[in-house]
Amino acid sequence: MTADTARTVPDEHRAEVERLREHLCALHAELPRWKLVTWTSGNVSARVPGADLMVIKPSGVSYDDLAPADMVVCDLDGRVVEGGRSPSSDTASHAHVYRARPDVGGVAHTHSAYATAWAARGEPIPCVITAMADEFGGDIPVGPFALIGGDEIGRAVVATLRGHRSPAVLMRGHGVFTVGASARAAVKAAVMCEDVARTVHIARQGGPLERLPQEHIDALHDRYQNVYGQ
C-alpha cells in the first residue's frame, strides 16, 4: 500500500505525529515484554488528536527492528497518508473503531496465550476476581469470528463492546482487541486481560467458579476508575 499523495500530515499536527511515532515504538516493546505476542503478530495504533488520522505499526516487521520512522500514518478510512512501509493488516479494523468510537484514542491487538485460548473456545472470561471488576467492570466478552484484512473485525469489536464496560474483547478463534482513551491505556488493558485470563483458567482447574455479585463489581469498578491512584 502506498501513501495517498492527495493527503499529507498537516503542519499543525506534525509534532504530535512524531511524538506518537516515538510513543508507539516504545509501547510495541511492551508486547513481547509481557509475552502478549510471538514473532511479528499483534499491533498497536493511536489516534492523532484533532485530526482524522491515526498512527499504526507496519505489517510483518520484527519488534526488535521497529523504529519510530517505521510507524505508518493513515487516515480514518485506512488509507496511507505517510510512511515508507505497508501498515498492519488490521488497519481497516482499527480505522473503523476510531470512526465509530470518538472516545477511543488507542487500539491494541494481541494473541496472548491464555486469553486467546478463551477466544478459541468462544467463551467469555467471567468476572470472578476483583482485578477484573477493577479494570473491566464485568466479564470480558467474546465477539464473533471475522476474517482479517477488511474492517469486519473492527465492526465486530465495536458491536460486541456496545453495552459493556470492558475495554477488551476476545475475538472468537482469533485473539484479543482492546481499546482505551490512549494507546497506553489500550496496551495496559491487553496486559491485564492476559493476566486475568491466566488466573481464571488456573482457578477453574480446581472446580466451578462463582461470579462476584454485581453490586460488588459495580463498587470495585467505580473505586478503581474514580478513586484509585494519583
UniProtKB/TrEMBL annotation:
It catalyses: L-ribulose 5-phosphate = D-xylulose 5-phosphate. SUPFAM superfamilies: AraD/HMP-PK domain-like. Belongs to the aldolase class II family. AraD/FucA subfamily. The keyword Manganese does not apply. Its EC number is 5.1.3.4. The keyword Cytoplasm does not apply. NCBIfam families: PRK06557.1. Keywords: Metal-binding, Zinc. Its cofactor is Zn(2+). InterPro entries: Aldolase_class_II_sugar_metab, Aldolase_II/adducin_N, Aldolase_II/adducin_N_sf. It comes from Streptomonospora nanhaiensis. This is L-ribulose-5-phosphate 4-epimerase. Residues 22-201 form the Class II aldolase/adducin N-terminal domain. It comes from the Bacteria.
